[in-house]
């Protein structure tokens, strides 16, 4: 892992920086404009910062058992927060649909979606190249792929929102389902990894 430590560390820092900037902008714009899908994507992006920084620490420690318990705790917490965000997003979307057609989504949704895709695609490709080095890097690549999928959903919803006022709420429901599934997968994956790695050595992820 020593030969790959430097690029892997850079990728985690790029991830954290992108999640902070793009996620913060999406959350602020979404709340100020009443764009449900946009603030949902922003919140989900900000939640990815702690796992990225936790993984950075593990990489610097050689991806051994040191920091493993911390990473499991971070991922377990992330799984709960993602499902909580999914619930809030679904409730907001349902309420918006019940209130009837709202205003059409602005171009900020499209702008954030395009910027996210432009950054997340090469980031995911770079992470996928390192995924085989260690399982933890593979799981990190999966989390980036989830961000990429949400950006694609946001772009699709933004395009539909140019013509259909209900598109934002429908996109919010789709994002809520995506977040809930990711949260469930993280919860199960963390439990399985804890059981499998209970007595392992430094190769444990």
From TrEMBL:
Could you name the domain of life of the organism this protein comes from? Answer: Bacteria
SUPFAM superfamilies hit by this protein: Cation efflux protein transmembrane domain-like (SSF161111)
Give the transmembrane ranges. Answer: 73-97, 103-126
Protein's UniProt keywords contain Transmembrane: yes
Keywords associated with the record: Membrane, Transmembrane, Transmembrane helix
Where does this protein reside within or beyond the cell? Membrane
Write down the membrane topology. Multi-pass membrane protein
Q: What is this protein called?
A: Cation efflux family protein
**Any keyword Disulfide bond?**
no
């Amino acid at each position: 892992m020593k030969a790959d430590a430097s690029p892997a560390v850079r990728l985690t820092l790029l991830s954290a920086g992108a999640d902070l900037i793009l996620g913060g902008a999406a959350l602020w714009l979404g709340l100020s404009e009443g764009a449900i899908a946009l603030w949902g994507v922003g919140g989900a992006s900000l939640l990815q910062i702690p796992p990225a920084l936790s993984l950075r620490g593990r990489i610097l420690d050689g991806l051994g058992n040191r920091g493993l318990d911390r990473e499991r705790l971070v991922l377990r917490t992330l799984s709960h927060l993602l499902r909580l965000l999914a619930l809030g997003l679904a409730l907001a979307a349902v309420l918006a649909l019940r209130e009837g057609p709202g205003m059409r989504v602005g171009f900020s949704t499209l702008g954030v979606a395009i910027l996210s895709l432009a950054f997340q695609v090469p980031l995911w490709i770079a992470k996928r190249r390192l995924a085989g080095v260690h399982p933890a890097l593979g799981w990190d690549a999966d989390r980036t792929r989830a961000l990429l999928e949400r950006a694609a959903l946001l772009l699709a919803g933004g395009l539909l929102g140019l013509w259909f006022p209900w598109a934002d709420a429908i996109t919010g429901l789709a994002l809520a389902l995506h977040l809930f599934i990711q949260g469930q997968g993280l919860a199960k994956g963390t439990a399985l990894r804890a059981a499998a790695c209970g007595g392992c050595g430094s190769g444990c992820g």
